[in-house]
Design brief:
3 helices; M1 Pyruvate Kinase, Domain 3; mainly beta; four-stranded antiparallel β-sheet; globular; 2 domains; eight-stranded mixed β-sheet
C-alpha cells in the first residue's frame, strides 16, 4: 500500500503539519505530540473541550516552537524556556514533561481559559498521544464513509494509505508497524479543522451507525526507521 500523506501534530490537538518524510521511533513519528496545552487540572487540553485548538498552527525549528493563533497572534518559544519539571495527564496516564515558566496569558485569552504550555520530557516513554503512537487511515475508509463534506483532516491521522486493503502489519524499507486496535472516534470528528467550528452530527453519526464508531487503526512500532510519502508498504 502506498503512503499518500504523512502528518505530525507537534502540539497535541493543534493543527497538522504535512511532511514528506519522518523518522519513526518508539514514540511515533518524530515531532508528533511533543507539546501540549495544559489546564489548571493538569490534564492536556483537547478539541473536545477547546475546539479552537484546531486553528493554532505550529512551526518547529531546531530549537524553537512558533505558534500562530488564527492569524491574530504569534508566539515564539525556545526549548530552553521549558524549565519546570511537571507531569501531564492524558486519559488517566501521567506523562513527564517540562513547562514553560508561568501561564501563557495570550494563549489563555485566545482559548478563553487559563493554560500552560509543556514540552515532553526527553526520557518519557510515550508522547502526548491518546493511545498507541501511530494512527493509520486509508483512502478506502474515507470512500466507504462517503460523506462529501468530510475530509481526511477530520480524523487527524499520522499515515494515510492508498486503497482499502486490511492488514496486521505494514513493512517499509526501514520501518515496521503492527496493528494494535481500531480507533474509536469521538466528537472531534465533527469539528472543522480550519475554523474550529462544531459541525455535527456527521461523521460521528454515520460512524456509530455503520462502522461501530471506528475509523482508522492504531499501530505500535515494531521497528523504527524512516517513512516517506510515496513509499510502498508491504502488507501482511
Amino acid at each position: 500500500m502506498r503512503v499518500t500523506a504523512l502528518y505530525v501534530y507537534p502540539v497535541k490537538a493543534c493543527r497538522a503539519v504535512a511532511v514528506e518524510d519522518a523518522a519513526l521511533g518508539p514514540l511515533g513519528l518524530e515531532h508528533d505530540r511533543r507539546f501540549a496545552f495544559v489546564g489548571d487540572d493538569g490534564r492536556a487540553l483537547t478539541q473536545r473541550e477547546q475546539p479552537l485548538l484546531a486553528t493554532i498552527r505550529p512551526e518547529l525549528d531546531e530549537d524553537r516552537l512558533r505558534l500562530d493563533f488564527g492569524g491574530l497572534l504569534q508566539l515564539d518559544f525556545s526549548f530552553p524556556e521549558f524549565l519546570e519539571s511537571t507531569s501531564v495527564e492524558v486519559w488517566g496516564k501521567r506523562i513527564p514533561a517540562h513547562a514553560a515558566e508561568g501561564l501563557v496569558a495570550e494563549a489563555g485569552d485566545y482559548l478563553g481559559t487559563r493554560v500552560r504550555l509543556v514540552m515532553l520530557d526527553p526520557q518519557a516513554r510515550r508522547a502526548f498521544v491518546d493511545s498507541q503512537p501511530v494512527l493509520v487511515t486509508t483512502t478506502g475508509m474515507l470512500s466507504q464513509l462517503n460523506i462529501p463534506a468530510v475530509g481526511m483532516e477530520r480524523f487527524r491521522p499520522n499515515i494515510v494509505l492508498e486503497g482499502a486493503q486490511d492488514w496486521t502489519a505494514l513493512e517499509g524499507k526501514d520501518a515496521l508497524l503492527e496493528r494494535s486496535k481500531p480507533c474509536g472516534r469521538c466528537e472531534v470528528t465533527t469539528i472543522d479543522q480550519a475554523s474550529g467550528a462544531r459541525c455535527g452530527p456527521e461523521p460521528l453519526r454515520t460512524l456509530t451507525e455503520r462502522f461501530e464508531g471506528n475509523f482508522g487503526v492504531y499501530c505500535r512500532v515494531a521497528r523504527g526507521g524512516r517513512l516517506r510519502r510515496g513509499e510502498i508498504l508491504r502488507v501482511s
